[in-house]
Amino acid sequence: MAQVTVKINGYPYTLGCEDGQEAHLTSMAADVQSRVESIKALGGHSGEGKLLALAALLMADELHDLRLEAAALRTQASKPSKSDAAAAKRLAKLAARAEAIAGTLEGL
After folding, report:
1. How many CA atoms lie within 13 A of 94 on its CB side?
2. What is the pTM of this model?
3. pLDDT per residue over 20-75, tens digit each?
4. In the Cβ-directed half-sphere of 1, how many Cα atoms lie within 13 Å?
């Protein structure tokens, strides 16, 4: 197991991760630090715990929005569009026509 020390709001945190995941963990810490800096720029925070809680809530809100977008895209992808319906109808006509032609050739 690898260990990585990251800094968030000036404080070092030594964290364990799977071997090979060090860069990913460092990147995630940078994302948290970015949220912390955004909150600090707004002012009004009081204490490390509250600052980190607000950063976590911002990230949870972003994750919530992404999940909603993903669900909407899955729903949209599962609904056939008008062009899909038209293509299916045309394909059914072509299949019926091919079967009719095959039926007339059977007697030859």
Report:
1. 6
2. 0.65
3. 999 999 999 999 999 999 999 988 677 999 999 999 999 999 999 999 999 999 88
4. 5
